[in-house]
Amino acid sequence: PKVTTDPNLLEEQARKEMVLQRGFEYIRGSAGEAATMHANRLAFRSWKIIPRMMRPTGDRDLSVKLFGKKYRAPILMAPLGVQGTMHPDKEIGNAKACAELGVPFTLSTSASTGIEELVEACPEGDKWFQLYWPLDEEITASILTRAKKNGYQTLVVTLDTWVMGWRPSDLDTANIPFLVGVGDEVGFQDPVFRRKFAERTDGETPEESRVLAGMYWCSEIFPGVSRSWEEIRILRKYWDGPMVVKGVLSVEDAKLAVQYGLDGIIVSNHGGRQIDGTISSLDALPGIAQAVGSKITVMMDSGIRTGADIFKALCLGAQAVFVGRPVVYGLGIAGKDGAYAVMANLLADLDITMGLSGVKSISELNPSRLAKIQHPGDVRSNL
Ligand code: HOC
Questions:
Q1: Measured from the CB, is residue 270 less than 6 Å from ligand 1?
Q2: Mutate to test the pocket of ligand 1, among 22, 82, 211, 325 (most ligand atoms within 8 A of CB)
Q3: How far is the CA of 132 from the centre of ligand 1 (A)?
């Protein structure tokens, strides 16, 4: 099937046409009543582009440099988990699409594709690796060593998901056990429950039981307790490349990221999937960029749906953005070709938006190109 170019219709198309239907509710879902997810969209609507005319912009350059490496455009694929529950092409199809477009692909710790498996199936293209930080240091060391050995360039450490948010759509469909491949027989995502379940071995080992393996895995990477900033030094033992933290929404945490020697931050509320009612990423961005933008690489995610959104995020201080749901809707509808279509559309949309606004290169984007308005109005709920 052909994936729509209309961002207002994509979610609805995915709802109807996604090859593996059950994955749809998981990806669409947000925490609580989805107020944060909608706030993410409203924030983009509250900024308006002020275009300039009569400026030749024929030879536009979208490239950016991140951690000393040049990338085609300021767009990366977000570390979205369990893509095998959306389409059999899973992360491999998505990574191939990104590689063909020159967009870095970020592999999630909770991917349906292994660290080595992805590189073997798709050796081409830039790859970053996202860490859900396991409780056990030996497991952490093993994951990071494998990622490094297999050429993943940048480590993205997610800070905001030491337990999964309260997501009604997953709770109502008992989706979590399904997502980790253990079937419907075990329910709730409470970490204490999971740890107890994992320890109730009945003589079985995780190697023998898929259910136990899934529960052990979940209780390791979503342990129900947060790490502390001091513990970043543990990760530094096993990762000497660029390391960024994802989930920063306050100036204070951004400053701590600088203090603890991180190379970058991703201003993010996890697409509204963790805490319902948080500040939108775009609203948090300008203050953070102003406070730390000269000391650390600032990127953002949560709510990007169009080229204009990317334009605005860059004007407000992001050096690059991550895109998640839309690309995986494309993957779910038409596999690799669908992911390719959505990502290619975003690149083209950004390119045209820049040109029409009188901008030739990313370095020309700054707050003076935008105006903030007071009443953005409503947005469609399906964004
Ligand atoms: C159940 C396994 O970042 C999300 C992800 C967490 C991935 C866990 C998938 O859903 O927001």
A1: yes
A2: 82
A3: 10
With a 6 Å cutoff on the Cβ, whether 110 touches ligand 1 is yes
Does residue 270 carry a catalytic annotation? yes
Assess whether the C-beta atom of 82 lies below 6 angstroms from ligand 1.
Answer: yes
The percentage of residues in the chain with a pLDDT greater than 90, rounded to a whole number, is 79
Quote the ligand 1 centre to 290 CA distance (angstroms).
Answer: 31
Nearest CA to ligand 1 atom 4: 81
Q: Kindly tell me if the per-residue pLDDT of 262 is higher than 80.
A: yes
Among 167-171, 195-199, 334-338, the minimum mean pLDDT is found in: 195-199
The span from the first CA to the last CA of the chain, in angstroms, equals 21
Tell me the pLDDT tens digit for each residue of 52-90.
Answer: 999 999 999 999 999 999 999 999 999 999 999 899 999
> In angstroms, rounded to a whole number, what is the distance separating the alpha carbons of residues 156 and 302?
15
Q: ipTM of this model?
A: 0.96
Residue 195 has what pLDDT? Answer: 56
What pLDDT digit, counting tens, does each position of 301-321 carry? 999 999 999 999 999 999 999
